[in-house]
Amino acid sequence: MARRSPQAPQTNLAEYTVSELAFALRKTVEDAYGHVRLRGEVSGYRGPHASGHCYFRLKDESAAIEAVVWRGTFGRLKFKPEEGLEIVAKGKITTYPGGSKYQIVIEELEPAGVGALMALLEQRKKQLAAEGLFDEDRKTALPFLPRVIGVVTSPTGAVIRDILHRLADRFPSHVLVWPVRVQGETCAAEVAAAIHGFNADPPQVAQRPDLIIVARGGGSLEDLWGFNEEIVVRAAAASSIPLISAVGHETDWTLIDLVADYRAPTPTAAAERAVPVRSELLTSVRTFGVRSAGSLRRALETWRSRFAASARGLPRRDAILGLPRQRLDAASHKLPRALLANARVHRSQMERAGSRLRPHLLANTARTGRDSLLRLHRAKGRAIHATLDGARRRLDGQAKLLTTLGYHNVLARGFALVRAEDGVMLRRAADVKPGAGLDIEFADGHVEAHADPRRASGKKSAPQSAPRRKPDGNQGNLL
């Protein structure tokens, strides 16, 4: 409300304070424009303030307007402001009395067309590529046969059904599903949290997966934008578990495709790449088994042939012993003549020695011979007695050994020795012919007997007694 100063001169103009005018203008602007959609390029954006609010400008070729996003609104924005991004902002036009300027309080924000998103996407792609996140040397190989597969996707969409169906057809595997929203404001944060959750130590799931599949069906660039967010790309790059990206259709691509260890054109293709075909593996195993057996068989045949060839190269026994045998035969043929020649030589030597003998030499020789004969006779007697004593001792030892090892000791323990009529010892009952005569030797004598002719029919007959006979001195023994 305007107030008139008592000292001021009389005038028709209303007088306002600065605050009154500022708030009056604010009310006028808000009433005149209210909510508007404003298109412009983001300028001067430095991220959220310490308070959580964001301050920047929207500009075009000719003008600029201040913009503010309150902290509560900033967390709900689908797209966050980016420096140089052309956007369409929906909000309320108002003024800031403390700075005498007008501004727009943004409530919703979206890129100004696909071109703006593509520009932002290319800019983000260059930034992350410069950090080396897309380098091929940092990617890891996928496991050949993962035991557990983690899938990050919506639990209610057709994508998870396609993946499970394809895995069941190829190689049934254990699958852990981490449910996330695959589009919208919270999509990026949920996908990044799922990747970190599978990689956590200890894992936040029942069992740590060997492979992760991030999957989503096709859609527009705006629908897939959550997989272009920097938080998702960095989470995929930091994953120690091999990761397959299966976002969109074959013609769609996102930044997670570039950082993933493998990019599948569709979710179904991701399942096909994750596991081999079980039936093909079984066929390969059988084929390898047949080939291995054939290879072993051929190796054995080869070594057998080599062994046979080596054996043929060795000299035969007759070839080795032939020459020594021939030498032995030649020596045995010469031996009789050599013995006769040797005897003739010694006879000649004796005749020459005898021709040189004289009577006195014979007398001396006779005396010497008698003395020598006496000495020899006494020595011979001693030698004979010593020899007899040694022989007697050896004989006594052999007799004791014979007594110990002889079969008579066995007969003394109650056994009997059965012989046929011709004196051959019988060892088995099958060697006894019915009606044959037998000689049974016991420890104290012999008994003659005849085999029962009914033995073949299985009937037993009463034993026939036989007169004992004295041991025959001509009877043989077991030794």
Secondary structure: elements and pairs:
Layout lengths: L17 H16 L1 E9 L10 E6 L4 E6 L1 H4 L11 E11 L4 E11 L2 H17 L17 E6 L4 H13 L3 E6 L7 H13 L11 E6 L13 H9 L4 E5 L7 H5 L2 E2 L3 H8 L3 H36 L3 H39 L3 H47 L1 H6 L4 E4 L16 E6 L2 E6 L17 E2 L10
Parallel strand pairs: 3-5, 6-7, 6-8, 8-9, 9-10
Antiparallel strand pairs: 1-2, 1-4, 2-3, 4-5, 11-12, 12-13, 13-14
Helix pairs in contact: 4-8, 5-6
| CATH class assignment of the largest domain | Alpha Beta
Looking at the structure, the CATH topology of the largest domain is Rossmann fold
Helix percent band: 40-55%
How far do the termini sit from each other? 154 Å
Order of helices and strands: HEEEHEEHEHEHEHEHEHHHHHEEEE
Can you say what the CATH homologous superfamily of the largest domain is? Dehydroquinase, class II
Mean pLDDT: 84
| Uncertain ranges | 456-462, 475-479
Can you count the beta strands?
A: 14
Oligomer: single chain
Q: How many DSSP helices?
A: 12
Number of individual domains: 4
Overall spatial form: rod-shaped
Radius of gyration: 61 Å
Widest β-sheet, arrangement of strands: 1-2-3-5-4
Strand content: 15-25%
Taking the sheet with the most strands, its summary is: 5 strands, mixed, barrel
Would you identify the CATH architecture of the largest domain? 3-Layer(aba) Sandwich
Class computed from helices, strands and strand pairing: alpha/beta
